[in-house]
Design the sequence.
């Protein structure tokens, strides 16, 4: 067990050493979340100034949506990009012939994803509180469950992306940036599912994030905790995570058969 | 028990048979050379031995562990070095070594790094980013990484490529010492025939994925009637001369 944690720490140490040595990388972690918060914070301030009280709550759900979506996005990118860093440095050959098990690799990437997400999202949360009078923590302790669900969804998507990169190499790399953006319109981040056309709603409800954002709006607007949505988010996340783990296992095996692990990154 | 046992190993990519039914074994504490021209199947064989590639058929056993079923136990006791696989360039040599010290669960990793730095003359570059090193320094660092866990089986792919003659000789001497002191088994893929003659007790010659000859360097020199392994290599690669049967 100790050896397992040491191997996981070994890979995390490699990424932490990289961030210690590269301030642009460190800066980039917080750059986009803070920039997003500025854009939506000013938009929300403008709406409140023009429309008065009704826009206050709309602004709050907007800012809540921005911050929580960043949790998903940064968790996904934190995991995928940490893997891509290994590929870009042509180091995967050494990693895969070390005693590090594939599931330990995944746990190390998850560890890095949590660190990267915190470094990215916390400055944006503080900015929202300091400049736009929006306190995300006002949602209450249920926020922890929102965070957990969104992170798990991010990891499931990232594991899917990593699986495809393992199998198809750098050709699948753009998915690390693009895939989750494609899900945003259907995840009810800024508007309720009821706004979507009826035929899209089943797809929307199959996304764990949709239930979190519906729950967030219920908590912010009505002060109600929607346990049904939280339960649905957890259940869907388990399905997504199991699907991603299966895909990863199969693609890793396929890469070992085809020889893709030897040439990955080239 | 042999430290390395490869039995009837084959690898097929579509219509291409990269490795065709090869078998060889290396007793503990020996250095074996895996030789052949480009495309002979050396890298494919090493990749299968490291578990990076699943064989189409055949069996590989390292230190008594079947690589198909129990590769992680074997991988903890072996290591690999190739100038063609890089280490993270922004990390310093020391940081890179620490990463692999943790991955291989090395006790007293700082002490081990200091030992290797002394033995491989890395002291002056320990705190330099790996990307800023010369080709020769990178090769020595890759070798240090391969020795971080005091491996019982060491797979080396051209370990002295891009080293100047002096450093190359130092590394060969060091490898000989390490093998003698630790009893490590070394599988060496190299195009440097002088190196092969000096280090290897036994040589397996590959061509188009098949074993075309094998034996000690002395035995091969005798059978091909040559004075050095370079000519033996060329005889085999170009089908110039047939050996006297062993």
Sequence:
């Amino acid at each position: 067990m100790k050896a397992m944690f040491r191997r996981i720490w070994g890979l995390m140490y490699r990424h932490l050493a990289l961030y210690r040595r590269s301030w642009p990388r460190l800066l980039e972690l917080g750059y986009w979340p803070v920039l997003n918060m500025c854009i939506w914070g000013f938009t929300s301030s403008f709406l409140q100034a023009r429309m008065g009280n009704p826009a206050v709550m709309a602004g709050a759900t907007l800012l809540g949506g921005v911050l929580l979506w960043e949790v998903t996005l940064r968790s996904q990118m934190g995991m995928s990009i940490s893997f891509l860093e290994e590929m870009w440095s042509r180091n995967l050959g050494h990693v895969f012939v070390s005693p590090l098990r594939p599931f330990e690799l995944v746990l190390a990437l998850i560890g890095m994803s949590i660190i990267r997400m915190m470094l990215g999202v916390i400055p944006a949360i503080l900015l929202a509180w300091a400049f736009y009078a929006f306190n995300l923590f006002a949602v209450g302790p249920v926020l922890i469950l929102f965070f957990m669900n969104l992170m798990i969804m991010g990891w499931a998507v990232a594991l899917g992306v990593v699986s495809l990169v393992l199998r198809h190499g750098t050709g699948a790399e753009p998915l690390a940036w693009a895939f989750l953006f494609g899900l945003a319109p259907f995840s009810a981040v800024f508007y309720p599912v009821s706004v979507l056309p009826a035929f899209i709603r089943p797809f929307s409800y199959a996304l764990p994030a949709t239930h979190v954002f519906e729950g967030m709006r219920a908590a912010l607007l009505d002060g109600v905790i929607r346990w049904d949505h939280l339960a649905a988010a957890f259940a869907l996340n388990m399905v997504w995570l199991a699907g991603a783990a299966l895909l990863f296992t199969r693609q890793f095996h396929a890469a070992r058969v085809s020889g893709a692990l030897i040439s990955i990154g080239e | 028990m042999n430290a390395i046992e490869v039995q009837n190993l084959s690898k097929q990519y579509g219509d291409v048979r990269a490795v065709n039914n090869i078998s060889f074994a290396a007793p503990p504490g020996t250095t074996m050379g895996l030789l052949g021209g480009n495309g002979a199947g050396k890298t494919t064989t090493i990749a299968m031995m490291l578990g990076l590639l699943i064989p189409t058929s055949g069996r590989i056993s390292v230190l008594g562990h079947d690589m198909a079923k129990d590769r992680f136990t074997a991988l903890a006791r072996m290591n690999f070095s190739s100038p063609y696989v890089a280490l993270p360039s922004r990390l310093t040599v020391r940081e890179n070594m620490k990463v692999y010290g943790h991955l291989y669960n090395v006790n007293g990793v700082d002490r081990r790094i200091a030992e290797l730095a002394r033995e491989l003359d890395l002291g002056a570059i320990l705190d330099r980013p790996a990307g800023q090193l010369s080709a020769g320094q990178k090769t020595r660092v890759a070798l240090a990484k391969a020795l971080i866990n005091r491996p019982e089986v060491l797979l080396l792919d051209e370990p002295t490529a891009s080293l100047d003659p002096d450093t190359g000789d130092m590394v060969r001497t060091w490898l000989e010492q390490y093998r003698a002191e630790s009893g490590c088994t070394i599988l060496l893929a190299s195009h440097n025939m002088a190196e092969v003659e000096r280090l290897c007790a036994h040589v397996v010659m590959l061509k188009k994925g098949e074993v075309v000859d094998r034996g000690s360097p002395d035995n091969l020199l005798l059978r091909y009637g040559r004075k050095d392994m370079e000519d033996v290599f060329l005889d085999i690669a170009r089908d110039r001369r047939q050996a006297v049967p062993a």
Residues 67 and 125 of chain A are 7 Å apart (CA to CA). Chain A touches chain B at residues 2-3, 6-7, 9-11, 13-14, 17-18, 21-22, 85, 89-91, 93-101, 253, 256-259, 261-262 (CB under 8 Å). DSSP finds eleven helices and no strands in chain A.
